[in-house]
């Protein structure tokens, strides 16, 4: 039986009463935002420390990875004569094949992360998400910290660092399916795109925080750049264990009586049919039994058969391939800013249109001329370059953010599995796991194709964006046909949270 988080029990005892449904939802947004920001923060040390593990002999003096520089972290410590280690690097990464070894570690991490995503999603729909997420965060922190301990234990065996990264990748895979499943349980489809678009800023916040944490302690030894972010995510895991309300029914919020019979007509607006159940005061610290019995997890094959899962998963494969390859070249702050704006804009537009596939495909098609313009006119001036970079980043990251958040949550509560909402984590894992394979493949392909010139790389990216859009063609046609045949049913609905009357929304009938 799932128990109420200890922190919630403490807050109840202090306040003398429980929170409202709206307060719980704000709290869930806050906790999951912090949780996934911790995940991203713990992934940044490697990119910060690479210049220390393998000092590039061709590096131009004064040029270091963000945030090392005059605005954030002093550059002097990198060139400090006291520490000859920073000139010599760290074996085995300071050898001629050092960059290759660092690349192998990155690929191993992404491979374990991608494969672990499918397992994590399957488990997430069967286990208590609060405990599952907390253990995943603590495990991630331990292995990130152990990687850094190699500095103080004087470890120079490549296999040690490889194993630590692979283990960290497996634990990192627990994060995304879990947080999306929690959000999907608390939020219906109305304004889900906008809410999750704003919420998705945790990625950028985590990246910036992780970079600052790793760089701020680099002067004391590169191991601290892993230990501090590792401790950061462990503290986040403890916070999740203490405070995360993962399931609405655990707190007495259940479907309104009599509404279940109308689920086929109103399958998507969970917000309109959730209310506080009459749970006895003394029993609010345990899970609602009738809410628990009806729920079972779905298998990977069953989740793949949900309409829209495979097209969106394949679309995300190419969308992430393009995003991770292109955004890798952008200045750090530009990639984060463009990503935030793109995710929010795509989510808001998809809410207004009630058409996730059409929005995602339109953004991918718009990314093609944007990349072409950037390649053609990006060298005109610095200002033109910055504007074109921002626009391109917006169109590339928009569908990527939309598919991994709102679309995954929509499909995880699809009408074909109505009565069994325990598919959220599994569906999210299938979609984002497939996309993560593209994220690993993109930079790898760029390494080979770039030998033929950067024009060839841009052609690859534009073809990838085109394929991503085309993969959604069937869903786009279905959405447009639906809007044409039923123009009046596309009202976004302005009913309040507790309304018993909902309007048919067509976003799940793809």
Automatic annotation (TrEMBL):
Gene Ontology biological-process annotations: phosphate ion homeostasis
Keyword Transmembrane helix part of the UniProt annotation: yes
Location(s) in or outside the cell: Membrane
Alphabetical UniProt keywords: Membrane, Sugar transport, Transmembrane, Transmembrane helix, Transport
Keyword field contains Transmembrane: yes
Cited Pfam families: MFS_1
Listed InterPro entries: MFS (IPR011701), MFS_dom (IPR020846), Sugar_P_transporter (IPR000849)
Molecular function via GO: transmembrane transporter activity
Bilayer-spanning residue ranges: 21-42, 107-124, 131-155, 161-187, 199-218, 224-244, 298-319, 325-346, 353-374, 386-411, 423-445, 457-478
Region ranges (Disordered): 487-510
Record field: compositional bias (Polar residues): 487-497
Cellular component per GO, a single term: membrane
Signal sequence region: none
Stated family: Belongs to the major facilitator superfamily. Organophosphate:Pi antiporter (OPA) (TC 2.A.1.4) family.
Official protein name in the record: Major facilitator superfamily (MFS) profile domain-containing protein
Organism: Carya illinoinensis (Pecan)
Lineage: Eukaryota, Viridiplantae, Streptophyta, Embryophyta, Tracheophyta
């Amino acid at each position: 039986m799932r128990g109420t988080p200890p922190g919630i029990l403490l807050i109840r005892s202090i306040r003398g009463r429980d929170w409202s449904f709206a307060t719980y939802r704000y709290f869930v947004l806050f906790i999951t935002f912090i949780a996934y920001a911790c995940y991203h923060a713990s992934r940044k040390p490697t990119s910060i420390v690479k210049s220390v593990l393998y000092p590039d002999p061709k590096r131009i003096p004064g040029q270091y990875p963000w945030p090392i520089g005059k605005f954030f972290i002093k550059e002097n410590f990198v060139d400090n004569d006291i520490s000859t280690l920073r000139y010599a690097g760290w074996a085995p990464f300071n050898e001629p094949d050092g960059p290759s070894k660092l690349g192998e570690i990155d690929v191993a991490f992404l491979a374990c992360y991608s494969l672990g995503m499918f397992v994590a999603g399957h488990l997430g729909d069967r286990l208590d998400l609060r405990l599952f997420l907390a253990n995943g965060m603590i495990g991630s922190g331990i292995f990130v910290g152990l990687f850094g301990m190699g500095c103080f234990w004087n470890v120079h065996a490549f296999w040690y660092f490889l194993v630590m990264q692979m283990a960290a990748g497996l634990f990192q895979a627990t994060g995304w399916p879990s947080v999306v499943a929690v959000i999907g349980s608390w939020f219906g489809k109305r304004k889900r795109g906008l809410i999750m678009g704003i919420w998705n800023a945790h990625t950028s916040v985590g990246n910036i925080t992780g970079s600052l944490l790793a760089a701020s302690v680099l002067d004391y030894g590169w191991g601290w750049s892993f230990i501090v972010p590792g401790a950061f995510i462990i503290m986040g895991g403890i916070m999740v264990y203490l405070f995360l309300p993962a399931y609405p029914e655990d707190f007495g919020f259940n479907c309104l009586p009599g509404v279940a019979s109308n689920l086929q007509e109103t399958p998507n607006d969970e917000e309109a049919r959730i209310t506080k159940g009459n749970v006895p005061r003394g029993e609010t610290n345990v899970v609602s039994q009738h809410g628990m019995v009806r729920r079972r997890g779905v298998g990977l094959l069953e989740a793949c058969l949900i309409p829209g899962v495979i097209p969106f998963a394949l679309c995300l494969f190419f969308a992430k391939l393009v995003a991770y390859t292109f955004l890798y070249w952008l200045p750090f702050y530009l990639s984060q800013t463009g990503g935030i704006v793109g995710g929010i804009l795509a989510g808001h537009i998809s809410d207004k249109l009630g058409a996730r596939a059409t929005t995602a495909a339109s953004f991918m098609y718009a990314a093609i001329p944007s990349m072409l313009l950037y390649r053609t006119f990006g060298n005109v001036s610095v200002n033109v370059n910055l504007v074109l970079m921002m626009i391109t980043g917006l169109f590339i990251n928009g569908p990527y953010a939309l598919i991994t958040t709102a679309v995954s949550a929509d499909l995880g509560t699809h009408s074909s599995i109505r009565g069994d909402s325990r598919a959220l984590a599994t569906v999210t894992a299938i979609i984002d796991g497939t996309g993560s394979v593209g994220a690993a493949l993109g930079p790898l392909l760029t390494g080979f194709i770039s030998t033929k010139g950067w024009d060839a790389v841009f052609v690859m990216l534009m073809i990838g964006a085109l394929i991503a859009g085309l993969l959604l063609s069937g869903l786009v046609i279905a959405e447009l046909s639906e809007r044409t045949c039923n123009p009046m049913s596309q009202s976004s609905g302005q009913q309040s949270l507790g309304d018993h009357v909902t309007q048919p929304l067509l976003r799940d009938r793809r």
